[in-house]
From TrEMBL:
This is Elongation factor G-like protein. GO terms for biological process: ribosome disassembly. One of its GO terms (molecular function) is translation elongation factor activity. PROSITE patterns: G_TR_2. Signal peptide: none annotated. It holds the Pfam family EFG_III.
Length: 693
């Protein structure tokens, strides 16, 4: 663990699945002698992908931290999943980091999700650099992918190094500022002068790099000196480069391949990326929401830390990955744990005091004991039983709360049920552990459909959750068809009688009520009108009729769905001085409502949502056509920023249960949407049998 914040760098690796993030982490671990040999994803031997699910699927699904030490500076490399379903862990990595390495494959380029993440980092001013990996791949094209990155990320993206390829093999890198050839042909880096064949390429890229650095320089005279032909000292350029990178104004491009590029990346990270002391502090408030100012990254300051990742194991218990923003975290100290703002996802607001267990520095699945964690560093904390992902840890005498980072809304509903009674008994506890780990998971017990619904980010997210239930918690579940809650209403007006007359030994039942039933406009709810005159139904039994009608409405009259949007008028009836009772008139009211179903058509109503879809302009036409094919009504479009459009539509819920998957496919992972319940509308007759059958 680090002793001072200025000796720490927290760097998150960002990029689409398959770009080479995990492999790059392996090479950085090996280059710093943290591990003796690099592992392979195909063999399931990498440090980052140690989860059983990751080894089986051969892709990252979790945020993991890989600490290394280079030139006495501790670097916490945060390896994030590249697949959109696991964006929650990606956002957690962005929160814990002070800078980002965007990892781009020289063989595949970038995707839409990577562009969106670049924009997110730009919005908060996070320093960034680009690493083009797989430069030794047979389909690699460094120059082409560099151009793609510059087009996507802007003019302030420029290479620091150029790969040297001989007979399809990468032998080394040419430093554009140093104008040296770093030769890796023998397995260790040696410095040589680059050959004359590369001079033209070097000059072209070097001029562009120098101009980019000078444009971001705080020395305004530097540009005039450069334009007048003066040779700017390399040390001045490097100093200005490091300052521009640290403040997020310039984005260098590096190259990496098998055994090549790790030293250059480590040099940039330690010298160019900011320490936690230079990174802005997230917004901090008191527990009741009052802003708190003046807190900085100081080991001697008040404790403010955040749980960025939670994992739970049936044998080890709960382990919390914690980024300390202020103060110092030590074993056995008592802290205040605060979690607010995620009640809608099954995370109730909580404020409790807990004792810190053992601290450790995680390296994959290995936990190495740690004596303390100072501000700016990242540590694993054992057995915080109440802490969940996103919670704040602070001094118990002065509890504070960090504003939660933005989490995407899970929009893919999946209904599940336990496979056996034994599984059902264990399911609740297992799901509680999963929701504590994963803020992108929302758990719903639907009271109407009697279904247990997991709201997830996508199919891959579902697969991982079910796998963890089975393998980690020993709970077998199966997916079942999702039921959408419908409603019933009457399609016309009628008059009916509810007759409940039964004679038995002793007191019988006697209640007769005459009702007029009519539909109300959509959203009208329920109205009960009393038009009794002359006391034909005693006053004390009129509420009983209404209660009976309401009870029957909740049960429905045809398909078992709740009834809405009707007016019921009680205009006549009869009572008996002995046999009439509250219950007798409740039953009569319910019978009258069922009788109405035999006289007028009963309509099934389906829920309709207002949907707002944000997509790149290229996909607007496809999205609008698709929404129309789902019985949707497109309300309009509006531009959002540059190159994006918001499409608004009204779509039946029955048609968008899998829209999260379909939109991702349609927009190549770049589309997002939000849905809000709007109203109920009649279900088309040709779909009634399909839905109720």
């Amino acid at each position: 663990m680090a002793d001072r914040p200025d000796m720490v760098r927290n760097v998150v690796l960002v990029g689409h699945s398959g770009a080479g993030k995990t492999t790059l982490v392996e090479s950085l671990l090996a280059a710093t002698k943290t591990i003796q040999r690099t592992g392979r994803i195909e063999d399931g031997t990498t440090v980052s992908d140690f989860d059983e699910v990751e080894m089986r699927q051969q892709r990252s699904v979790n945020l993991t931290v890989a600490p290394v030490v280079h030139n006495d500076i501790k670097i916490n490399f945060l390896d994030t999943p590249g697949y959109a379903d696991f964006v929650g862990d990606l956002r957690a990595g962005l929160r814990a980091a002070d800078a980002a390495l965007f990892v781009v494959s020289a063989a595949e380029g970038i995707d839409g999700l990577t562009k969106m993440l670049w924009e997110e980092c730009a919005a908060v001013g996070m320093p960034r650099a680009v690493v083009i990996t797989k430069i030794d791949h047979q389909r690699a094209d460094f120059e082409e992918v560099l151009t793609v990155c510059q087009d996507a990320f802007g003019d302030s993206v420029a290479p620091l190094y150029l790969p040297v390829v001989t007979n399809g093999k990468v032998n080394g890198l040419i430093g554009l500022l140093s104008q040296k050839f770093y030769n890796y042909a023998t397995g260790t880096r040696t410095e040589n002068a680059p050959g004359p064949d590369y001079q033209g390429q070097i000059e072209e890229h070097r001029d562009a790099l120098i101009e980019g650095i000078i444009q971001e320089s705080e020395d305004e005279s530097l540009m005039d000196r450069y334009l007048s032909g003066e040779q700017i000292d390399t040390k001045v350029l490097i100093d200005d480069l490091e300052k521009a990178v640290a403040r997020g104004g310039f984005y260098p491009v590096l190259a990496a391949g098998t055994g090549v590029g790790a030293a250059e990346i480590l040099e940039l990270v330690t010298q160019g990326f900011p320490s936690p002391m230079e990174h802005p502090m997230p917004e901090i408030t008191t527990i009741d929401g009052k802003p708190v100012s003046g807190i900085v990254c100081d080991p001697d300051g008040p404790l403010v830390a955040e749980v960025v990742k939670t994992t739970s194991d049936p044998y080890v218990g709960r382990i919390s990955l914690v980024r300390v923003f202020s103060g110092t975290l030590r074993p056995d100290m008592t802290v205040h744990v605060s979690g607010h703002g995620l009640a809608d996802r099954g995370h109730e607001d909580h404020d409790v005091d807990e004792r810190i267990g053992a601290l450790s520095s995680p390296l994959g699945k290995v936990q190495r004991p740690a004596g303390k964690c100072v501000a700016g560093d990242i540590v694993a904390v054992a057995k915080l039983s109440r802490a969940e992902t996103g919670d704040t840890l602070s001094d118990k005498e002065n509890p504070l709360l960090m504003t939660a980072w933005t989490m995407p809304e899970p929009l893919l509903p999946v209904a599940i049920q336990a496979r056996s009674k034994a599984d059902d008994d264990k399911l609740g506890q297992a799901l509680n552990r999963l929701t504590a780990e994963d803020p992108t998971l929302r758990l719903e017990n639907n009271a109407e459909t009697k279904q247990l619904v997991l709201w997830c980010m996508g199919e891959a997210h579902v697969d991982v959750l079910l796998d963890r239930l089975s393998k980690r918690h020993g709970v077998e579940v199966e997916k079942v068809d999702l039921r959408v809650p419908l409603r019933e209403t009457f399609g016309g007006k009628c008059q009916v009688m509810g007759r409940n007359v039964k004679q038995t030994g002793g007191h019988g039942q006697y209640a007769i009520c005459h009702l007029e039933v009519e539909p109300l406009p959509s959203g009208g709810g329920f109205e009960f009108v009393d038009k009794i005159v002359g006391g034909v139904v005693p006053r004390q039994f009129i509420p009983s009729v209404e209660k009976g009608v309401r009870t029957q409405m909740t049960r429905g009259v045809v398909a078992g769905y709740p009834m809405v949007d009707i007016r019921v008028t009680l205009y006549d009836g009869k009572a008996h001085s002995v046999d009439s009772s509250d219950m007798a008139f409740q039953i009569a009211g319910a019978l009258a409502l069922k009788e109405a179903a035999a006289k007028v058509p009963t309509l099934l109503l389906e829920p309709v949502d207002e949907v707002a879809v944000l997509v790149a302009d290229d996909y607007v036409g496809s999205v609008m056509s698709d929404l129309s094919s789902r019985r949707g009504r497109v309300l309009g479009t509006e531009p959002v920023g540059v190159g994006r459009t918001l499409v608004r539509a009204e779509v039946p819920e029955l048609e968008i249960t899998r829209y999260a998957i379909d939109l991702r496919s349609m927009s190549h992972g770049t589309g997002t949407f939000q849905r809000t319940f709007l109203r109920y509308e009649p279900l088309p007759s040709h779909l009634v049998d399909k839905v109720t059958g």
